[in-house]
Each structure stands twice: as structure tokens, then as C-alpha cells.
Amino acid sequence: MEEKIYAMSQDPIYIGTGGYCIGRVDNTIVKDPITKIPKIPGTSLGGTWRYYMALEIHSYFEDDFKTDRKSREGKKLDGEIFKVCSPEWVKDFDGNRYAAIKCAGQDDMPNDTWKSMETAAVDKKSGHCGHCIVCETFGFSKQDKSQRGMAYFSDLNILLFPVYTRFGTRWITSKSILTSVGIDIDDDLNLNDDEVFESKKGTKEGTINLGWLNFKSKAMSEGTKCKLKELVNKNLSGSTILEENIIIASDDIISQIINSNLETRTSVSIDPLTGAAKERALFTSEAIPRGTVFYGDMRVEEHPLANGPAKEKVLGALKDSKKYFETLGIGGMTTRGFGRLKIFDWGDKDGSK
């Protein structure tokens, strides 16, 4: 089962390369090695989603004690593990509330044997349990047993990139990008590097600026407009602002447009003793700006064993836990206002998401 994932950044997204570069930007972000267009790696998406799924499970656990309103005394629960409103995939959780957190990130005890996992006490540091829906979805590896996950994530690539113009914000894409999401546009897009197609003409002079670059503007055909409108309505919650302000640029220049309009932010470390800026601690970071639309693929396969969770329950767990991307974010510098990402619902509009 394969689904297209569409997402929009609500804050600048910073996923660094882990290095330090001397130049206009000190902290650079991950880019495709061929096109040089920034992206969100599938490893970042899957690793963060694993933690959020474990977090979602914990939100459905009942408290260890319930307060009796009449006596205002705490009473220990007897057999009530999950809240009544819990979805089915949560009720099938095979583990305990402590194991869920241990399964959220990297295994802290990968050299333990599988047998010790089955008999581990609640308070034992056992790492990945190997039998909860988190481990089944994303996989695990122990000393004597490993299992691949059921879910696979591609990189999230840029579909529509926001650029400021004198007519307001426009979202930039190209023919090859649209083709990669299954849209065959009607226009004869043998564009020169200095030409673009606009869905909404903003000037009679036939030119438009994209950042500091100036292009000749052509009107987009009605057929292409309809296909872009369908894309926005079906996958991006029908944003009118998007569908009316899309520009198609040449495949040869799209990378230059995107990299010339990345958000750059200069920061400084604070000296905890003085409360002022720390000397020699100034640095500049680049990020994918808010309002960028991404696309990618998610594949969920059948469990290799008969007693594993069904694909529908894995998809339900992924769907219910994706909301944390909108609050806790993805990538680095989330405490500096980076990282929030909205992942749109996937699947058909008839409720079979």
C-alpha cells in the first residue's frame, strides 16, 4: 500500500548537514546531491514519526490513580489500561506504558538478547521491546533477532516554493517537479531560463520578479490551471491562495530560484553569566521558508508474520500521531521558532484514508 504524502511548513525548516561552512551561511541545510534543491530526508521524517507514535500511545493511558470526586482520594486503577475513547490500534498495544517510551528512539541496549526482552521487568532498561506497534511499524534490531519495519518513507521534496514578488507571494514549481507527482501539464514548456508561466497575471508589462531575479511572464493555459486546482483541492485542503498564485519556471533555473530565496537567520549565543551576547558566537543559518509545500511517498507493507498488526491499523497509528509535527516540529532549532510542519491527510476523500 503506497500513499502520497503532502505537507506544508508552518515555520522555517532547518535540517542541517552537521558541518560548518565559511561563507554567506555558516550552518547549511540538506540538499539533493543532483538538483541541489533542499529537502527533508526520509530518515528525519521516519525517526521523528516514531517518537510521535509512542507519544500518542501515552496520551491514551489511564492515570495510575483516579481521584474519587466525593472523597477526593486517589484510588489505584484495577485493569483499566487505556481510556474508553482510545482507537483500536492503541487498544492492541502489546506492551506497557514504559516500554512505549523506550521504543521511541534509538535502542539504548541493542546488545541485549531477544529472550531478555520477553521477560524484562517494567523498570528494566531494556531498549526496544520488539513487539509493540511502534517496533512493528519502524523495525528493531537486537543481538539475536532483527525485524524490518512495515512503513517506509521517501524524502520530502519541494513541490511549491514561496517567493516574494512585487505582486505578493507566488509559489514556484517546474515541469519536472509536477511530472513527479503525476501531473502532465498542457503547456508547451520549452521555456527559456528567463521565462515563466503564471496562473494569475500580475502585470501588463509581461515581466515578474522572483526575489532579485526578473523573468518574462506568459499566461498559463486553462488546462494546466485546472490540473493544478485539482492538485490543491485534493491534497492541500483546497487553498485558494495557492491555486491562484502558482508559477511554473524552467527546470534549468528552478534550483537557482529556490536557493536564492531560502530564509537566512543570524543568531548569537547568550552568555549565561552576563545575559548579553557572547563574544565570537555569531552564526548564520539557512532554512526552508514557511509556506513551502512538500511531497513524498509512504509505503506500508504486510507484516512478515501472521500475528502482526494489519496495515490499516499501522496507517491509523501514523495518521493519529502526525498532529505532533504541527506543534513539536521536525529538524533542528525548534526552540528558536523552527520546525513546525503540517502533514495533510492522505488517501481518498470518501473516508478511506
Outline the secondary-structure elements.
Layout: E1 2-9, E2 39-40, H1 42-59, E3 65-68, E4 73-76, H2 88-91, H3 97-102, H4 114-118, H5 133-138, E5 140-141, E6 146-147, E7 151-153, E8 156-165, E9 168-174, H6 175-180, E10 195-198, E11 207-210, E12 213-219, H7 222-235, H8 240-243, E13 246-249, H9 254-260, E14 263-270, E15 277-287, E16 293-300, H10 311-321, E17 341-343
Parallel strand pairs: 9-13, 10-12
Antiparallel strand pairs: 1-16, 1-17, 2-8, 3-4, 5-6, 7-16, 8-9, 8-16, 10-13, 11-12, 14-15
Helix pairs in contact: 1-10
Describe this structure in words.
With 353 residues, the protein is α+β, with helices and mostly antiparallel strands. It contains 10 helices and 17 strands. The strands form 4 sheets. Strands 1, 2, 7, 8, 9, 10, 11, 12, 13, 16 and 17 form an 11-stranded mixed β-sheet that branches. A two-stranded antiparallel sheet has the order 3-4. A hairpin with a 6-residue loop joins strand 14 (263-270) and strand 15. Helix 1 (42-59) packs across helix 10 (311-321). 35% of the residues are buried.
